[in-house]
Specification:
Spore Coat Polysaccharide Biosynthesis Protein SpsA, Chain A, 2 domains, elongated, alpha/beta
Length: 312
């Protein structure tokens, strides 16, 4: 029986990567028996010639399908759109810059078919990265594994195969949290394949330090953990306890007429200390409230401007 795989690319201004992505992924899929496929490119309102290039390619290659967003919505909303409109028995999300090697797709499909699993995730063995990124990755995974209430695998990215029923569950969740963590939250039987992530050949990554930090907080840690709320309570309690402990010291020094730690200095220290704690706690709460606000407004997570290659 012929099965169908949907390959999903979410991108912004990646005209230099499109030709290689189509060629290498098509070559990897064409060698797999009893398999049909579609290549779904979700264009996050690119301003270069990406759309023009894909439109021309789709004329002669009916495997290519394009979803154009009405404006920039971000990575995860684009992935959700790809999952909603894909027609495959399973879908694979991968980076358009081919840092996730297409040759691994065959191994994923083999695991999916032979072991009857719903998720096949890829785990990086070795990857040359900057010292700062290695430090952030190391501590990021430690924090997530310690405080999240879902099982996470280190060095496992968004490059993974998910079955049709996992796709259905993710669409019904209607969340824009990190893709890999939504897949882990859904659960079901899963297997892994090992691979070596390749360096980027064309262009530059669109994910800077700031976007990585916010994606970590809003897409990975906070949606699957209430640890920071509990931690803010502990910090506030400790802060108040310190001030209470300082009061007898202040009284003793006043009685002894000592000037080492004056009343005004203690008062100033206490005010600044408590204000700092309050600001810290409020910042944590505000992020949670922001996530709640985004979810309760029930606005569409994305708006599609047009589609190319899809049957109406």
């Amino acid at each position: 029986m012929t099965q169908k795989i949907s390959i999903i690319f979410s991108f912004f201004n990646e005209e230099n990567c499109i030709n290689d992505a189509v060629e290498h992924v098509s070559n990897a899929l064409s060698g797999i028996q009893d398999l049909d496929y579609e290549l779904i490119f979700i264009n996050d309102s690119s301003t270069d010639d990406s759309l023009k290039l894909l439109s021309n390619k789709s004329i002669n290659n009916k495997k290519i399908k394009v979803i154009n967003m009405s404006r920039r919505f971000g990575h995860m909303p684009c992935v959700l759109a790809g999952l909603k409109y894909c027609e495959g028995d399973a879908a694979i999300h991968m980076d358009i810059d081919l840092q996730d090697p297409p040759e691994i797709i065959a191994k994923m499909i083999r695991k999916w078919r032979e072991q009857n699993c719903d998720v096949v995730y890829s785990q990086r063995e070795k990857f040359k990265n900057s010292f700062i990124n290695n430090i952030l990755t190391f501590f990021g995974y430690k924090i997530l594994k310690k405080f999240n209430y879902i099982n996470l695998e280190e060095n496992a990215g968004d490059f993974r195969l998910i079955s049709k029923r996992v796709i259905k569950e993710i669409i019904e969740l209607n969340e824009t949290s990190n893709f890999r963590f939504l897949v882990d939250f859904v659960g079901f039987k899963r297997e892994k394949v090992l691979y070596q992530r390749q360096p980027r050949e064309h262009g530059e990554s669109k994910f800077g330090f700031k976007s990585v930090i916010f994606n970590f907080l809003e897409g990975a840690l906070l949606p699957f953990s209430d640890t920071l709320i509990r931690f803010s309570f502990i910090v506030g309690f400790v802060g108040i306890a310190i001030i209470i402990l300082l009061i007898p010291i202040m009284i003793y020094q006043i009685i002894q007429n000592q000037d080492f730690l004056s009343f005004s200095n203690l008062l100033l220290f206490g005010v600044f200390f408590l204000v700092g704690i309050q600001a810290f706690i409020l910042s944590i709460i505000s992020v949670y409230i922001g996530l709640i606000y985004k979810q309760t407004t029930n606005r569409p997570k994305y708006i599609v401007e047009s589609k190319i290659g899809f049957d109406e």
